[in-house]
Amino acid sequence: MVYKGNKVALDRLKEIAESVYGQLERSEVPHLELSSRTKSNIILDTDHDVWKYGEDKIKRSAKDLGGATSILRTLYTVDFIGDMIKGGKSSTLREMYYISEGWEKAKFPSQDESNKLAEDLEIITTCMREDFKLRPEEDGARVMGDITIEETNRKGEKKRINCKDDVGDSGYGIPYNVEKEKIRFKGINAKMIIAIETGGMFDRLVENGFDETHSAVLVHLKGQPARSTRRFIKRLAEQSGLPLVIFTDGDPWSYRIYASVAYGAIKTAHISEYLATPQAQFLGITPSDIVNYELPSDDLTDQDKNALKSELSDPRFSSDQWRSEIKLQLKMKRKSEQQALAKYGLDYVTDTYLPEKLTEMGLL
Amino acid sequence: MVYKGNKVALDRLKEIAESVYGQLERSEVPHLELSSRTKSNIILDTDHDVWKYGEDKIKRSAKDLGGATSILRTLYTVDFIGDMIKGGKSSTLREMYYISEGWEKAKFPSQDESNKLAEDLEIITTCMREDFKLRPEEDGARVMGDITIEETNRKGEKKRINCKDDVGDSGYGIPYNVEKEKIRFKGINAKMIIAIETGGMFDRLVENGFDETHSAVLVHLKGQPARSTRRFIKRLAEQSGLPLVIFTDGDPWSYRIYASVAYGAIKTAHISEYLATPQAQFLGITPSDIVNYELPSDDLTDQDKNALKSELSDPRFSSDQWRSEIKLQLKMKRKSEQQALAKYGLDYVTDTYLPEKLTEMGLL
């Protein structure tokens, strides 16, 4: 079965191959052009409020051996992806690296190289890795709440799964591909989406029934969220129009998790408009929460302090509120985890903290 | 709802408290006694073919401040667990650590201490942490295959989930508690259970439909498997009587994964008979496979070599077959990953490697 996303990807990959053949036919030294992926070439797209690559290009030319090998690898990879799309297969990035064992001179020296090529192909084609049927090793973030998902399974059958009634306590596992051809939202009975950093807190909200008492769809971010999780959240937030709040630990790394959901990450700047959900709001743990709720806290490490300082010059944290929170944290030199709320008992987060914070945000 | 496992746990925890009160009433300096958890006190229980603690005991006495604090913490913890069991709640180990913020002098200085106490209580009561309603942060290993599970969900409702027909492509997520009161196996239509180390390979077998073509229940081990995963596998293997094979990478750390499923791990030696499945057979990747299938491989590191050498003196690897495989690997100084089979294409593992290996083992 060839889906629309895969079909477009296949066409664009063919264009790459055709461009190289065309250049060879015209007796030109073949080359490929792609966006430069340096920090200086990342700009904030104010139309979509997400991070994107700028205008800087780099050229890979077969003039030198490195460039020629790179073009050869690209063509092998395009061929491999084409076969997968036609055969209804997918592959992990790790498998693609091993597959190249059979490509002789085009064999990747390391998986870093094959991963980078997959990203290059995304940039050239403006398609997503998932359209190429390439997936990461792990996914498995989980969802609990009253939404019904129609998943087209590996056999092409459509299955409806309600993420509250048709799943066990561990919830619905987000597959690696969450595009329209794979999953569709068929019924959303909720007032908000809450994305949660840690599995412990996700399970706490599930056990305490917060999804039911507050009509919330709970999504486990599982630390820095996988692409499929961010894309799932974006599609769900877009289709439902529901408010999306992010609930993480209170440290600079967790603020980056928020920023990657809301604005995108540097590594995936070329597909930010697919992955980022700018309406996402940060719920906490904020530095003010650490003070106001007298949470158990730990000293900031030097790395923590440097990360906070670098966030002060990051346009994604340029709002007055973020700046004053970050400055407060640098001053008090403390950080807290979301599970620190257990200081007041296992129900405190659902009975007190979340209702107070959501009310403050105008969502209750 | 008080389940039988929790009820027994509660009674035994009460006995601990009563013993301390009894000692105080008799004007004795209170003490607690538990098995010494040193390597020298781990023995192979030949009746059950699993690792267990030996006869060495240590005594915690209130004679010194450390012992007195430890007994105080134990009593607070017993109280907290009792409240959870009565209230139908559970808590992560991390939450328990934070809960102790309110225990003044009994506050745990670090989560290591609270985790260790949870293990101590297991040893004293011969119950499992899960009976105390304590759970780790993460679980989420996945299952795909034609088995029907009846899960009693958080609301006490019984739900039947077929792990092939009622789940998405990411499979059924194993909950943290897999005891009889939580899940029951209601229909097992399979010829074998295959436990797989990596998510990439699990997904490969799922995509290639190996569960259907070979009537296999596929279980994702997710690296070193969580207790719930090992317990799930043990219960499934025991109830079904099906052969269980372990499919991992070909390196010493993966052999330890096999050993922990088959014989138990040192950390959980006190509950090995609940967690270990001695009939588990190692399928591969074996060092011979690396040679016979000419797999892409990497150099052994010094740590790898040391781990292999220590396995040579580990009774769990004392069979002639294991010893000759380990010696072969030390000689060739190479290791391979299970996904290295992709060298021959994405279907090689399901079309060739697994059928050949399973035939060799007499399972096909």
Task: Give an overview in words.
The structure is a homodimer of 364-residue chains. Chain A has helices at 4-25, 65-87, 93-99, 111-125, 199-207, 210-213, 227-240, 252-262, 272-275, 287-292, 302-312, 320-332, 348-360; strands spanning 31-35, 42-45, 50-53, 57-61, 91-92, 134-135, 142-144, 147-152, 158-162, 172-173, 183-188, 192-196, 216-220, 244-247, 281-284, 298-299, 334-335. With 364 residues, chain A is of the alpha/beta class. The first copy, chain A, folds into two domains: 5-135, Arc Repressor Mutant, subunit A (Orthogonal Bundle); 142-360, 3-Layer(aba) Sandwich (Dna Topoisomerase Vi A Subunit, Chain: A, domain 2), CATH 3.40.1360. The first copy, chain A, has a six-stranded mixed sheet. In chain A, strands 9-8-11 form a three-stranded antiparallel sheet. Chain A is globular, with a radius of gyration of 23 Å. The two termini of chain A are 45 Å apart. The model of chain A has no long low-confidence stretch (mean pLDDT 91). Chains A and B meet through strand 5, helix 3, strand 10 and helix 5 of A and strand 5, helix 3, strand 10 and helix 5 of B.
Task: For the structure shown, list the relevant keywords.
364 residues; three-stranded antiparallel β-sheet; homodimer
